[in-house]
Amino acid sequence: MHKLNIGGLFMIKKETCKNKDFVVIFGKPGSGKGTISSMFCKEEKEMHNLNIISFSTGEYLRKLKQDPKMYKLYKQEFDKMDQGKRVSNKLVIAAVKKAIMDAEDGIIFDGFPRNEYQAKWLYEYLKSIGQNLNSVIILDVPDNEVLRRLSSRKTCPVCGKVYNSDYKSNYCKCGHTLIVRDDDTEFVIKNRLNDYKKYSKEVLSYFKSLSDNIKFYNINANRPKEKVLKDFIRVF
Ligand code: ADP
Known about the structure:
The chain has a single domain, classed as Rossmann fold (3-Layer(aba) Sandwich), CATH 3.40.50. Strands 4-5-3-6-9 form a five-stranded parallel β-sheet, sandwiched between helices. By secondary structure, it is an alpha/beta fold.
């Protein structure tokens, strides 16, 4: 709250810029970033009526790819994606900027930032609008578990929901046919895993180099999702 002194009278002006929650979720492909962050957002809505969203740049790109016009326009970028390589900074930053501008109570960034340039952009953009990056939460899972999880998962191309091998139907609960992601093949999974090891080091060392109040947490994500969620809620 700001106090304004107008003609000797103090008036209280409501803060126009409230503090929102901006958190980065980090973890290898298949570590459960999407699952845990969407469970968390649902819980925050139900328990505290907070509209925190989980913004996955990968999911955003997969939806964009479904649009024939966009596919033609960004074909080169989608080809990179199918090989497990990163797309251009420009494309993802534009989408993240819009998500931040629309954010009501906060965002969990999933898949972003993926290099120092994106990390620096995120940090500086949040500062420029009077917001902060609160924390980076890392989901730890060993490589063999990642390979096991990803080689058996199916995804809904429309709503983005992910199903593991326990789910036997070929249809999403929203009614659409499930697919195997174009980049969920063994060769591409290994590329994505190697890429994660590179970019997570780069991004974490950038954030750690800032003399700021960003907090870092590691969670053992090689456990049932309810237990991982409990720890996520505790540190968020
Ligand atoms: P993963 O399961 O590997 O974490 P994501 O769903 O986060 O996959 O991303 C899928 C693909 O989308 C990446 O391999 C990359 O091609 C592209 N992508 C997603 N986020 C970014 C980003 N921040 N910068 C560049 N490319 C990205």
